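Lecture notes, unit on protein representations.

Consider one protein chain, 398 amino acids long.
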Amino acid sequence: MKKMILLGLLTLFATATIAQTNPQPGYIITNNGDTVRGNIDFRTNESLSRQCVFWANGGNVSTTYKPGDIEGFRFDNNGKYFVTRRLSLFGDPQLYFAEFMVQGKMNLYCVAYDRDEYFFFEREDGEMAQLTNRAFLSSSTLQDEKDKLEEKKEQYGKVKILLQDSWKAAAEMTGSDMTRKQLVQVVRDYHNDVCTDGSSCVVYEYNEKTDRSKTHFKAFAGFAYYASERTVNQDLPDESYHGGAFEFGIGVETEIDRVMKGGSMEIGISYTPKTKFEHDVVVRGGVEPSHTVYERSRVTATIGIVKRFGKGRIQPLVRGGGYYVLHLGNKESRYYTSKKIVDLEWENTAFFGLYLGAGVQMPVGKHYARLHADWYKSMEKSSTGNMIKWGITAEFAL
């Protein structure tokens, strides 16, 4: 069963990612300086530093350009702007599509590579300094961290020297990790201090909003049918309880179109009020059914991926991920021949599992609503985690 669930999740993710594109309006600039309008595949910064997949207006076939094939490309609405530059990330200079962040008396470029960001400060006389923002890796050794600190100290010193004509810009280079927005401000301050002829000084700056993923807050409510459920104290021949329960919760969802077209990451937490599950079973030698009542509430946390298909008002979707459930107020009562023969309460229990689902999404003004059916299966074969759940959930996102 576990293999079947894992295969289902792998199939979901493979279907969602294979042959996916994210075309956004923009234009390329040829090496002759001509501008050709069309659509550009808007992927991650690292992918865009290596290639530009372009569909000319009126064309259905894409062309993939490498650094040097074209002068650059840019997305509409003051979006990201990439230009061909020969830069040295690891020693030998190579051609990259560098993100052009600021143009002025000091230019600022960025190349993303292997989760790190390489910023290049270029003064108008051609002098250049590099600053690397390293991604944090939990597997880094102590020596790796020392090397990073030494590299950072050396790089910040070189950048400050390059900025020495502006005391304000140089002072802003504090030596700690600086965000993209802070680095843009440093270069702008340098330009404003150095440029004495405002009419001839033009600062180009990208629109930060084009680099942000949309995040939605959502509320949801649903009904779940538990096809297989049991208690810690279960000792009857029929191991499964059956029953339904309502649940409600809140969540956050962030779009990841630059990695998966129509995709998003979701995180949610839901609460199920205390619910009773009852069943009757005739034990060997019994004269009447034994009636058992089992009750508890639960809190469930989920994390997963949602993939939407199509561009219509009603979009099909699939979803999948993992969950963790905490059972609260476990209690079991059993009656036989009108007498209570079991009256137990025990401490909280918990387990984890996987979920798969499918449904539809439709817009509601600037928001959206969803309806989806889901299947949850615990990954533990124990008295605390033997659960199969089917659910129908309605969502509304801001």
